[in-house]
Amino acid sequence: MLHRAREARLEGERPPVAPRAEIGASWDRVLRSGIDPEQTTQSVLLESDEIEHRRRSSALGEVMPLLSDGLGSIADSARQIMVVTDVEGRVLWRQGNPGVLRQADGICLEEGASWAEAITGTNAIGTALASRAPVQVHSSEHFVRTLHSWTCAAAPVRDPRDGRLIGIVDVSGPASTFHPMTLALVGSVARLAESEIRNRHLLAIDRLRSVAAPLLARLGGRALAVDRHGWLAGVTGMPPVSRLPLPKSLQAGPVWLPSLGMCRVEPLSGGWLIQVADEPSDAAPRRVVLDLSRPACLAVSVKGPVGSSTQRLSPRHAELLYALALHPEGRTASELAEDLFGDATRTVTVRAEISRLRRHMAEVLAHRPYRFGEGVEVEMIPPEHPGDLLPRSTAPVVVRARTTV
Fold first, then answer.
1. Which one-letter DSSP state was computed for residue 62?
2. 289 phi/psi in degrees, rounded to 5
3. Is the peptide bond preceding residue 174 cis, with omega within 30 degrees of 0?
4. CB of 229 within 8 A of CB of 210?
5. What is the DSSP string of 183-227?
6. Which residues contact 15 (CB under 8 A, 6 or more apart)?
7. Residue-by-residue pLDDT tens, the chain, 405 positions
8. How far is CA 320 from CA 60, 159, 189, 283, 343, in A?
9. I want to staple 109 with a disulfide (CB 3.0 to 4.6 A). Which of 84, 104, 197, 251 is the partner?
10. Which run of H or of E encompasses 4?
11. Nearest-5° angle of CA 43, CA 49, CA 52?
12. Measured at the alpha carbon of residue 254, what is the angle toward residues 252 and 260, in degrees to the nearest 5?
């Protein structure tokens, strides 16, 4: 039945049975990308020194012993292999049953190979990367026919320090080794890896706190000590925050931050000392770029005369900013509630979400009515295909845009 559903989709016909939603969505993406279902899964391998560089640069390297103990040995005994990739879908580590490892070489499931959807079609690694969610792909659910004798289950791993996706943990093997509990096992081990990274992070924060405390005690005015990811280690002269959004390329010197205005930044061992300027600044932000082009990586950039800052957005905050971008004149709380929920009475929820947004974008968001501030240029980058605009959103303002030619 899976085979017949796939063949019908390839022919543009109505399938006899609908594939699972995540598989159908993946097939649609792959068909649009023009991948040949009869192609091989071969890809250009990374050089060994590049693989080593990516291993050293990845937080997953710190938890590989845990992954090996928690998943590698189980995969071996189940005639499967464990595969760990980076955020591009490049295989960095693999281990497991020796016989299956040899079979994996035949489909290029080896270190340095790319398993992104755009390269190898629907597969657990690439589809988990595209959807940012755990997924199991079995037999004919794979888009490329070469993989129909395989089954695989994969889960994304996020860095708990900043929420970024850092890689994929996957278990693959011959189709005969399929088990419905494999996905749950892979997801549990991925969460365990995230927990280990979080514990290491808390220890690093404690070390930074001991360095920053005497410095903050001697300073006047408002100042914070944060780690490289913006997590607070100490504060003086202002209310504490859990985390301060930082630009990707933060450097020492004068910096404009969306939530604080002009600041002076100095390096600390393992973090930054940030002193907030008390005098008014003429370096106000002038441009906001709302990037909705990749549903799995929603972001907003705030650009000013002395630099820019980019932060990831939750789907709800992306919906709010999208609605505000469509209405430069501003929206009341009830109008935004209608835009997002189709219910003008849900103003309490809207005000709470706007309040959360303003913690990070206070310099560019105004209120009464809610809108982008005066003189702020707003640019919106939509996805290439209208149907990919916030695909999981049910907000009326988004649904209308997806169905409007």
1. G
2. -115, 115
3. no
4. no
5. HHHHHHHHHHHHHHHHHHHHHHHHHHHHHHHHHHHH--S-EEEEE
6. 4, 5, 6, 8, 9
7. 777 787 777 777 777 777 888 998 999 899 888 899 999 999 999 999 999 999 999 999 999 999 998 898 899 889 999 999 999 999 999 999 999 999 999 999 999 999 999 999 999 999 999 999 999 999 999 999 999 999 999 999 999 988 889 999 999 999 999 999 999 999 999 999 999 999 999 999 999 999 999 999 998 889 999 999 999 999 999 888 888 888 777 888 888 787 787 889 999 989 999 999 876 555 556 789 999 998 878 988 887 665 677 888 999 999 999 999 999 999 999 999 999 999 999 999 999 999 888 877 777 888 889 998 887 889 999 998 888 899 889 999 999 988 764
8. 33, 25, 34, 26, 15
9. 104
10. helix 2-10
11. 95
12. 110
Query: In angstroms, what CA-CA distances link 362 with 328, 349, 358?
Result: 17, 19, 4
Give the Cα separation of 54 and 59 in Å (integer).
10
Residues with Cβ within 8 Å of 397's Cβ and at least 6 positions away in sequence, in order, are 319, 322, 323, 326, 339, 340
| CB contact at 8 A, 171 and 153 | yes
Read off the tokens for 147.
């993989």
The string of DSSP letters for 256-285 reads EETTTEEEEEEEETTEEEEEE--S--S---
Q: How close are the terminal C-alpha atoms of the chain, in Å? A: 34
